[in-house]
Structure formats: C-alpha cells, structure tokens
Design goal:
heterodimer; A: mainly alpha; about 75% helix; B: mainly alpha; Rna Polymerase Sigma Factor, Chain: A; Arc Repressor Mutant, subunit A; 2 domains; 10 helices; disordered C terminus
C-alpha cells in the first residue's frame, strides 16, 4: 500500500465497501504514515461536517395541502 | 384506503397516477415533497424559490408522467426534474459564480494540519459552517450538486448517477474531488487554530 492508493480508497472506506484485507492494509498504512492518517481523519470529518451544514426542512402541512389540492385539480382537468 | 396507498410501491402509485388516480398522487406528494423541497433549497439557498420549484416539479410530474416508461425509476426521474428546475432558477438569477479550476485540485499536495482534534465548539461553529457552505456553493455546478445530494441530503451514488445522467464512477470521482476541495478550504480556515509548535506534517 502506498500513499496514492491509500487516498484513492478513502471514499470506498467511508462507504464500507472495501474487503477486510484492504481495510487491514489501509489501516496498517495509516498507522505508519502520519500524513495519510491525518488526511483520512480530516477528509472523513469534512464529510461529517457537510452533513451538518444544513438542517433538513419540512414543508408545512398547510402548504402541502394547498399543493395537493392544486395538483389534484390539474390531474382531473387533463 | 389510506393504509392501502401507504403500502403501495412508488411504481404502483405511478401506474395509478397515469390513470388519473388523485389519491395515488396525494401519496406521492406526501412521500416526496420534503425531499424535493430540501434538494431544491440546498441547491438554490432560497426558501421561496424552493417552494416554487417543488410546485413546478409536481406539476411536471402530472404533465410528463406518461413519458416515464419504467415506473421503478420514478424517484430518480423526480430528482432529475428537481435538479433541472433548480439549475434553471440559478441560471435565471445568474447565481452561478465563476468556478475555480478543478485541475489543480485533483491531488491535494498541501501540508496537512490535523484539525480533526479541534474541539467541537470550533468545528461546529457558525463561522466554520459558513465557510463550508460558501465552499460548497463555489464548486463547479455538477460537482456541487453531487456533494449536496450525497453529503448534505444523503442520496445513494446510484440515485445521483441516474438523476444526473452520469455513471456511478463519474459521480464518485466528482464527489471525491469535491470533498478534497472542501477539505482543503477547511484546512486553510482551521489553520488559524494550529499551535505555535507547528502542526504541519
């Protein structure tokens, strides 16, 4: 395992799609390569922070009802 | 009746909508309105535009549902309609800024500062969120959409690929490059918290 291959596998690692052997190789490399270890931790944290950058919103029930009424009217008038 | 509709698959509901079943349409709106709204809002950063887009998207569903030949692909078709409507809004409002070149960002060779050990109050501050949000907004159009769909809204790679008409490897490649750009931005921002002993590796 070299640094280039290690960073190329970050995405698959986060998606849990790597074989156990590759995970072990990756972990082993990162335990010995400080740069890759830091790179993985900050890459992974970037993904985590992106998930929290926006709070999911809900459309109000009233708006959904208005939209549904409009859509049903359009559907039936086709 | 309502329980029956709740249990129907999207494909079954779509077939019923094609036969002008308004109850099936109601169920589809119930299932997807928040997802469509959130995607539109995250792409446009404009709540009222997101509401308009949501309405436009479901009107398109009614108008074009007959053209959807494989009902099982309804959700990805819906997301494609949503992203297209959001792009249309952004183009009309000229909200696409000049994009940075991605070529020089393929390989992040910058010195690495381990900001992952910073306390949560710094990592999760409003300022750092704002830096990250601005960085997402400045990504090239398709890359930005992929990052938002995957990392902000939690779509699967396959859903994103089908929605955007790309292959899964193309989605993954752009996602990885987008994340590298965001990581670089955050590294630059958090560097001000590095101690005097020098944390660069």
């Amino acid at each position: 395992m070299n640094c280039k291959l290690c960073s190329a596998l970050f995405q698959e690692y986060l998606e849990n799609t790597l074989s156990e052997d590759l995970i072990n190789e990756l972990n082993n490399h990162m335990n010995h390569c400080e740069r890759c270890g830091i790179f993985f931790r900050t890459y992974s944290l970037t993904v985590t922070l992106s998930r929290q950058v926006e709070t999911p919103s809900c459309v109000s029930t009233e708006k959904i009802q208005r939209l549904t009424a409009l859509l049903c009217e359009r559907l039936l008038s086709k | 009746m309502s329980n029956t509709k709740d249990k129907l698959s999207d494909a079954a509901l779509v077939i019923r909508i094609k036969d002008d079943d308004s109850k099936a349409l109601e169920e589809i709106v119930k299932r997807y309105s928040n997802k469509v709204y959130n995607l539109a809002f995250h792409l446009t950063r404009d709540a009222s535009a997101a509401e308009e887009i949501m309405q436009e998207v479901f009107l398109t569903v009614i108008a074009k549902i007959a053209t959807l030949t494989n009902e099982a692909y309804f959700a990805t078709w819906l997301y494609r309609v949503t992203t297209n409507a959001a792009y249309g809004f952004l183009r009309k409002e000229k909200k696409f800024s000049d994009q940075p070149s991605v070529d020089d960002m393929n390989q992040d060779q910058s010195p690495t500062y381990d900001w992952s050990t910073l306390p949560d109050d710094i990592l999760l501050s409003e300022e750092s969120s704002s830096v990250l949000r601005e960085s997402i907004d400045s990504l090239p159009e398709t890359m930005r959409t992929i990052v938002i769909m995957k990392d902000v809204d939690g779509f699967k790679n396959e859903e994103i690929a089908q929605s955007l008409g790309l292959s899964v490897p193309a989605v993954k490649s752009r996602l990885h490059r987008g994340r590298l750009i965001l990581r670089r931005t955050l590294s630059d921002y958090f560097r001000k918290y590095s101690d005097a002993s020098g944390e660069d590796v």
